[in-house]
Amino acid sequence: MRYRPEIDGLRAIAVIPVILFHAGFGFFGGGFIGVDVFFVISGYLITGLLLEELAGGQFSLLRFYERRARRILPALAVVVTACIPFALAWMHPLQMEDFSASLIAIVLSASNFLFWYESGYFAPAADEKPLLHTWSLAVEEQFYIFFPIFLFVLWRFARDRTFLTVAAIAVASLLLSEWGWRHWPTANFYLMPTRAWELFAGSLCAQWSFRREQRPNGPLGAFGLALIVAAVFLFDGDTPFPSALALAPVVGTALIILFAGPGTAVARLLSSRLLVGIGLISYSAYLWHQPLLAFARVRSAVAPSLWLMASLATLSFALAYLSWRFVEQPFRKRSPATKRGGTIKLVIFGAVIGAALAGVGLAGVLSKGFLHSFEPFPYVAEDEFRLPTTKTGYCFYFVLRSDLPVGEEGLNCFVGDPAARKDDILLFGDSFAGHWEPFFDVIGRKYGRRIHSVTTNWCFPSLTDNIPGPRPQNVVDQCRINRDYLRNNASRYDIIVLSAQWSGIEESGFTQDLFDLIDFLLENTRARIVVMASPLALVRNTVENSVLSGMLHVSPDPKSQERIDAVHRRIAAVASGNDRITFLDENDLFGDYFGSGGLETAEGYLYSLDGKHISIYGSKAAARHVITTRNHSFFSALALPQDD
User: Fold this and answer.
1) Which of 101, 228, 330, 528 lies at a 20 to 30 A Cα distance from 119?
2) pLDDT digits over 186-208, tens only?
3) Which residues have CB under 8 Å from 72's CB, separation 6+?
4) Residue 608: DSSP 8-state
C-alpha cells in the first residue's frame, strides 16, 4: 500500500485523547474514542494489504500472521515484562492476583474476556489495573486471526459480493452493540462481536479505495475530523458505548481515510512532522501510558495530582520513542525472507516469552497473588476483602453480566441459620443491602434466625420503576420483579430491613420513594421496619490504597457524605415518631464512627472496601461489634435475646 503520512497523523489524534482521558483530564471526557479510531485504521490497513496480496496471487496466511506478530508482540512483551517487578513490589495480594490473571490472558489474546469477567459494578478500580488497556489489543488480535481467512474465502468464492457481505456483517454488529449497551453493557464494551463493525468500517474503506482512485474532498475530510473532536469533548463515561453514538468517531475516521487526500487542509494538518512523529510511536505510547498511570494510583493513598499524571503521560511518550526505536523497528525490519529460519526463530522466541509470562501469571493466581510473601493476613487468604456476590459464596443478585438470568431465581437467597423454622426477616435493596448479607449471616447463625435477602444492583427500596441513572434493561427487569415481590409478600415478614446507597438516591431525586414505601409497609403489614445507614463515603478505594499497603490514610468524600447525611436525618426523624421503625446509624453498626475506632475494626483494618461498600470482612466485623456491644437498638429491632 502507498504510505499515507496523514494516517500516522490520525493515529496521533487517536492516542493523545486516550492518554489524557486515562490521566484524569476531565475535559477529555470522550478520549476513550481514540480506541475506536485505532480500530478503523487497523481494519483499513489490514484489508488493504490483504487485497493487494490476493489480487497479486501472493496471499500467505503464515506471512500475514508473522507480520502481525512482529508488529505487536515485541513491544508488548517488553512493556508487560517491565510491569512485573513493579507489580511484585507495590501490589497487594488482591491486586497481584488480578495482575497475574491478566498475564495469562495476554498470552492467550483473551484480555478482553478477562476484563469483561472482572469488570463492571463490583470491579476493583479499573484505573489501577496496569494491563487493562490490552483488552483492545485482544480484540484486534482476534480480528487478525479470523478476518484474513474470511476475506480469502470471500475472494475465492464470492469476490463480487465481498463488499456487501462485509457491510451486512458490520451493520449486524452495529445493531448488536446498540442492543448490547442496553442489556449487557460490560460484554458490549469488551467483546469483539460488538466491536467488529468498527474494524469492518475500516475494511469497507479499503475495499472502496481498492478499485477507485481517491478523490480528495476537503469539506468531507474536515467534517470527519470535526466528528472525532466533537466526540472527544462531548462524550463521557456515561455515554453508552459502543452504540450508534460511536458512529461519530467511526464515520469521522472513515471520512478522513477516504477524502483527506493530498492537497486538503486536513491532510496537511495530519501530515505535519509533529503529528506524524507521534503517530509513529503511538502504539508504544498506548502500551506504556496505562502501566505508568495505574502504578501511580496504586502507590497513592489519595488521588494523584494532575501535575503528576501529566508528567507520567509525557514520560509515556519518551518511553514510547525508545521502544519504537530499539524494539519495534528492529523486529519489523528483520525480514525472514532474507534470513533462513527467521520465522522458526521468531516462533521459538515468542513461545519462550509467552510461556515465561504465563508461568509467572499462573504462579500468581495459584498462590493468590503471592500471598506467602506478605505478612500474615488471613482475611485476604479467605477472600474476605471482596464484596458478597454469588462468586464469593453469597447471593447478592448481580445481573449486570449474563451469568445470572433475570427472573424469580433472583428471589432465592437466604442467609443465617439454615435450620431455622422460618425466614421472618427480609433484607431488601440494592448492593448496599447486599453488602449486609455476611452481617446477617453471622447474626442469623448465632441466634437461630434465617434471613431472606432480595437484593439487586441499583434496585433501591421502592415500589416505583425509578432506578438511579440509565441502567441496562436486565437490571430494570430484575428490579421490577424484586419490587413486585415486596409489594405482594411484605405482609408475611415480621421484620423488613431496608438499605441502599442513600447518596445516589438523593442525587437522583428519588428519596421520597423510600418514605412512600415505609408508609405502604406501615399501612399494609405488621412488620417492624429497620433502615440501615450508609457507610461513610470515602474518596478513594480504601482497601486498594490504604489497608493492604499499610497506609491508613483515608479522607471522606464531602459531596457524597452531605447527601448521605441529608437522607439519614430524614430517616431518623421519621423513626423517632414511630416505634415500628428503627434507624440503625453508623454508631450502632460500627461504634464511634467518626472517632478513632469508627473507620477501623478491632483488628485495625477498615470496614470499607471501595470507599462506598463495606467488604465481607467489614460486614462480619460489624456483626461482631453489634454482638459484643449488645447494641440495644439492633437487638430490640430484630427481637434478639439481650443476653446469651
Assistant:
1) 228
2) 899 999 999 999 999 999 999 99
3) 137, 140, 141, 283
4) B
